[in-house]
């Protein structure tokens, strides 16, 4: 085999023992979990907005960004639940490019997984400690989940991972909402099959142990658009798409039918400013149909301090080094508009 074993890495249990979450922060996180759970079970009619940078590439600018959300959350708390995107694992279509802080805590230096593990735990914990927000991240590598699972209140499974059996099994053991994105092909059946699998109990091998997971009733769908055989983006946020998803849910015996709409990626064809229009169209669809209102629980928005994106090494503070994002001013305005329309 052509593997070169560089170094042994500490297990999540060791890291969590060395860098524990304080009891008061664990309680804050639990409260956020309960708020989100009530939205997915229908006990709360608040609207969820999962918002933040495409990739969390710099701790100081990410924490700065989340601090800006605090005021907005306070003013919109009767209508919105804001969950900061603090994404530290980045899937790459071709395997090229920045793969997230867990690989490179400094995007301009060589990969260092040990320092990356420490960096992502420190950043997620700092967000919770300084702002009161528990976080969202993507479960790109299921075996790494427990490095952060005591801090996160929301987990996403991406379009390239949603068909993977291991992701589905691990999602069945999560005790927070897990969103399953539609695959890049756009096949809604694949996405719904993933939800079915994650809501069922399973026994499997995890980190060299036999484990049992009881199933996660908060697993749900995320619509992120698709790509056809010609490489063209096909959005799936329109009224007809939401209506179809509602009907497909109705044909299955799933707990807590729910959907989050991702306003970027193939829904916007990565035209980041289109996220504003897309968000408003989804909200209009919710107002037009009680069925869609009951199904669509929130939005996912890519946003940072500065609009657009930059290359690694350009050093513009608070500007994405992966996909282009909305800037803070337009994001703040959009959040208030979402609160009024939700």
UniProtKB/TrEMBL annotation:
Every DAHP synthetase I/KDSA domain range: 34-334
An individual GO BP term: aromatic amino acid family biosynthetic process
Keyword Amino-acid biosynthesis listed: yes
Molecular function via GO: 3-deoxy-7-phosphoheptulonate synthase activity
Pfam families hit by this protein: DAHP_synth_1
Catalytically driven reaction(s): D-erythrose 4-phosphate + phosphoenolpyruvate + H2O = 7-phospho-2-dehydro-3-deoxy-D-arabino-heptonate + phosphate
Gene3D superfamilies in UniProt: Aldolase class I
One GO term describing the cellular component: cytoplasm
InterPro entries documented for this protein: Aldolase_TIM, DAHP1/KDSA, DAHP_synth_1
Pathway field: Metabolic intermediate biosynthesis; chorismate biosynthesis; chorismate from D-erythrose 4-phosphate and phosphoenolpyruvate: step 1/7
Keywords of the record: Amino-acid biosynthesis, Aromatic amino acid biosynthesis, Transferase
Family: Belongs to the class-I DAHP synthase family.
Function summary: Stereospecific condensation of phosphoenolpyruvate (PEP) and D-erythrose-4-phosphate (E4P) giving rise to 3-deoxy-D-arabino-heptulosonate-7-phosphate (DAHP).
Protein known as: Phospho-2-dehydro-3-deoxyheptonate aldolase
Organism of this sequence: Candidatus Enterocloster faecavium
Taxonomic lineage of the native organism: Bacteria, Bacillati, Bacillota, Clostridia, Lachnospirales
């Amino acid at each position: 085999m052509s593997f070169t074993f560089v170094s042994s890495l500490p297990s999540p249990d060791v890291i969590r023992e060395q860098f524990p979450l304080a009891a008061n922060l664990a309680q804050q996180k639990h409260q956020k979990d309960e708020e989100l759970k009530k939205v997915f079970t229908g006990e709360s009619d608040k609207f969820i907005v999962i918002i933040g940078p495409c990739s969390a590439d710099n701790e100081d600018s990410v924490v700065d960004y989340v601090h800006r959300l605090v005021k907005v959350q306070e003013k919109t708390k009767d209508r919105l639940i804001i969950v900061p995107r603090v994404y530290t694992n980045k899937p790459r279509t071709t395997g090229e490019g920045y793969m997230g802080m867990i690989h490179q805590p400094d995007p301009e230096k060589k990969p260092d997984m040990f320092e990356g593990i420490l960096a992502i735990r420190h950043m997620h914990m700092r967000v919770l400690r300084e702002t009161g927000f528990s976080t969202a991240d993507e479960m790109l590598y299921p075996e790494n989940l427990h490095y952060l699972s005591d801090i996160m209140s929301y987990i996403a499974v991406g379009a390239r991972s949603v068909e993977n059996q291991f992701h589905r099994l691990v999602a069945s053991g999560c005790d927070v909402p897990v969103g399953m994105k539609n695959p890049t092909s756009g096949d809604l059946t694949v996405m719904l099959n993933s939800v079915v699998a994650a809501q069922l109990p399973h026994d499997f091998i995890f980190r060299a142990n036999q484990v049992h997971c009881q199933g996660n009733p908060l697993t749900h769908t995320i619509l992120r658009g698709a790509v056809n055989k010609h490489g063209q983006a096909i959005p799936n946020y329109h009224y007809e798409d939401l209506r179809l998803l509602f009907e497909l849910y109705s044909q299955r015996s799933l707990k807590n039918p729910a959907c989050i709409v991702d306003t970027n990626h193939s829904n916007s064809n990565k035209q980041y400013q289109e996220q504003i229009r897309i968000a408003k169209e989804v909200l209009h669809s919710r107002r037009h149909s009680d069925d869609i209102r009951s199904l669509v629980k929130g939005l996912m928005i890519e946003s940072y301090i500065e609009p657009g994106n930059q290359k690694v090494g350009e050093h513009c503070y608070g500007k994405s080094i992966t996909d282009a994002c909305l800037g803070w001013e337009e994001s703040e305005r959009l959040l208030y508009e979402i609160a009024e329309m939700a």
